Amino acid sequence: MKLLHFYKYQGTGNDFIMINQMETKVLDGSETALIRRLCDRRFGIGADGLILLQPRDGYDFEMDYFNADGRRGSMCGNGARCTVAFARSLGLEQSSYYFFAPDGPHRARLSTEKESWIEIEMSDVQEIERGQDYFFIDTGSPHYVRFEEKLDALNVEKEGRRIRYNERFAADGTNVNFVSASPDLPLQVFTYERGVEAETLSCGTGVTAAAIAYTLQHKLTQGAAIKIPVKTKGGPLEIRMEQREGKYSKIWLCGPAKEVFQGHLNI
Q1: What is the C-alpha separation between 61 and 54, in angstroms, rounded?
Q2: Could you give the CA distance from residue 226 to residue 222 in angstroms, rounded to a whole number?
Q3: Centroid of chain to Cα 205
């Protein structure tokens, strides 16, 4: 039996178990059943995912991300913001960071204006699929985006699960985002997440995909300094980006990230 010291963080309600492996390796990522049990909200700590903070040559740190189902996941935007907050709490106090995530290198910075506000630069986006009533965009994780007139009347879990498990996406899965169709900002985004297989209170890569889709929907697609405020069930986020010749770059996911609690558990 081993004593696990864990931390719990949340970014707009997207919550994560954090484990410090900067000096000592605790998990190697093969413990699928254990990670799934730790993320279980009834029999474990409870979380949308688990993140290992560990060293990597050439970077301030690496985030190794696992979905609540115990399997290694793709990029998690809110998780990345929480990882920066976690690293900072452990003594890595910097105004900016360069770290490695599941989809490659990223930069991060701290806001000088808002407490606990952390900004992550996301990967560039160029390939966007536009269907009759949807967008499909990979922002480090795959996202299906659909605009709705009335989000509050939508059964997010039922409709999200239907799309995630349809013939096209059943094998690899996709995240599903339902976005308010109003031209007024902030955008409202509800997300069904693969790997959690349920609605979550927020999804950073999903909000990023929704903001990009919004610029296309409303033809805000050329120039610098596009800023899209977003409302999720877990709180406010903001996307800043530039778009030139069909390529979205300098995409920053901005929002709060905070420690909830920490503790010890025998595993």
Answers
A1: 6
A2: 9
A3: 5
Q: H or E stretch including 231? A: strand 223-232
Helices (H), 106-203: 156-164
**Which residue, among 176, 242, 254, has the nearest Cα to 210 in the 3D structure?**
176
**Pairing status of strand 187-193 against strand 49-54:** unpaired
Successive 10-residue mean pLDDT values, the chain, 267 residues = 93 98 95 98 97 98 98 98 98 96 97 90 96 96 95 94 97 96 84 98 98 89 82 97 92 98 94
Q: Which residues are catalytic?
A: 76, 203
**Beta pairing class for 187-193 and 223-232:** parallel
What's the rounded Cα separation, in Å, for the pair 77 and 222? 24
Q: What is the CA radius of gyration of the chain?
A: 18
Residue carrying structure tokens 């296309």:
216
Look at strands 247-256 and 235-244 and give their pairing.
antiparallel
**Domains along the chain with CATH numbers:** 3-122+257-266 (3.10.310.10), 128-245 (3.10.310.10)
